[in-house]
TrEMBL record:
SUPFAM superfamilies: Immunoglobulin
InterPro entries reported in the protein's UniProt record: Ig-like_dom, Ig-like_dom_sf, Ig-like_fold
The encoding gene: LOC102206487
Highest taxon above the source species: Eukaryota
All residue ranges annotated as the Ig-like domain in the record: 139-209
Protein name: Sialoadhesin-like
Database matches in PROSITE patterns: IG_LIKE
Length: 232
């Protein structure tokens, strides 16, 4: 075992010389080993798409050269993970050793765009890698966003259906309620233009992507109008 290997030892050739102090003329230089010194970060690999509510698995692996002093792999402790566990795996690969630490848990939409990190700690240094998570989830919150707070009766207005989802919604349903009348309009756009706004109008929208649907609460429009009366 060669201890305390440094980058200065890169491409160093070593060999065994039997009885170097003897008077024999035979030396054994013909079988040499070249030391290749590398400093690599661990590799993070996620096996499949991560969908909210489903189990996921992320692997962190490293190749090392000495089984007597293996590195330690450590996932960052992320409080957004639910019901997570770790599994260690070791095996020899072509004269070196492969170490993998698997993180298993339940995906949540709160993990989307967060970063997970894995660190490999060797005797004298630590190397780390990180990955940005992409969690697929249905619309979680859907809200109606008005272009303006007050609208005059008979005027027009743009209303936006804002959804927190991944991927973005591909279909929207608009629900219009005016007194005893109810209407439904389909759209592929998040913003809808409404003409001839009447008093006592309420709106709601439903957003849909490949993983589910969600509807907003009803929003009453603040419609200004003039009272008509006869003067005697």
């Amino acid at each position: 075992m060669i201890d305390n290997v440094s980058t200065a030892d890169h491409n160093l050739r070593v060999y065994v010389w039997i009885n170097p102090d003897s008077q024999t003329t035979q030396t054994f230089h013909d079988q040499t080993v070249t030391i290749s010194v590398e400093r690599k970060a661990p590799i993070i690999y996620i096996q499949k798409k991560m969908v909210e509510g489903e189990n996921f698995q992320a692997n962190c692996s490293i190749i090392y050269s000495c089984p007597f002093l293996p590195p330690s792999l450590q996932w960052n402790a992320n409080t957004l993970l639910e019901n997570y566990t770790f599994v260690d795996f070791h095996m020899e690969v072509h004269g070196q050793w492969f170490y993998q630490k698997t993180l298993r848990g339940v995906a949540t939409y709160l993990m989307h765009n967060r970063r997970i990190r894995c660190s490999a700690k060797f005797k004298t240094f630590t190397m780390g890698s990180e990955m940005k998570l992409n969690i697929l989830y249905k619309p979680i919150t859907v809200t109606v966003k008005k272009e303006k707070k007050v609208v005059v009766e008979g005027d027009s207005i743009n209303i936006e259906c804002v959804a927190n989802s991944n991927p973005p919604p591909h279909k929207y349903l608009w629900f219009i309620r005016q007194l005893d009348q109810h209407k439904i309009k389909n759209s592929t756009q998040s913003t809808k233009h409404f003409n001839n706004i009447a008093r006592d109008t309420s709106l709601s929208c439903m957003a849909q992507n490949a993983f589910g649907v969600q509807q907003s609460v009803w929003v009453d429009l603040d419609v200004q109008f003039k009272d008509c009366f006869d003067v005697i």
